Amino acid sequence: MLARYPQLAVIPPILVVVYEVLQKPMYIGKMAFKQGLVLTISATVGTLLYFAINSWILVTLLDIILMMILLRLVGIRMPTVYAFPLLPFVFHGQVTAMLPIGELIASVFFFASLLAYKKFEMKRNGKVMQM
Fold this sequence. Notes:
mainly alpha, 4 helices
């Protein structure tokens, strides 16, 4: 069934980030926004470079360098960001063009759900959480 929806391939890397966050005692909206933003930008950059440059080696090299710069600019460490720009190599055609949109939708859903869960968890434990 999932073979008919290849854009769902963005979900496993996002789940890696979600699992990492579940292990942390606190999670705020600012971090959820940063993570979603970085993952969306990385998927978009990877897709654009894939369509713009005909050399897979050059695209891969640029993807890695640009993701290092992006993570430094945003000020977070997230190894998963290196996987997203390479996803267009796995899928071709129409699916590749839809990867950034699929990633954005999945990020919003998973990070909003995670934020709600962490807020509930902190409320249950009697702690106050920033949004």
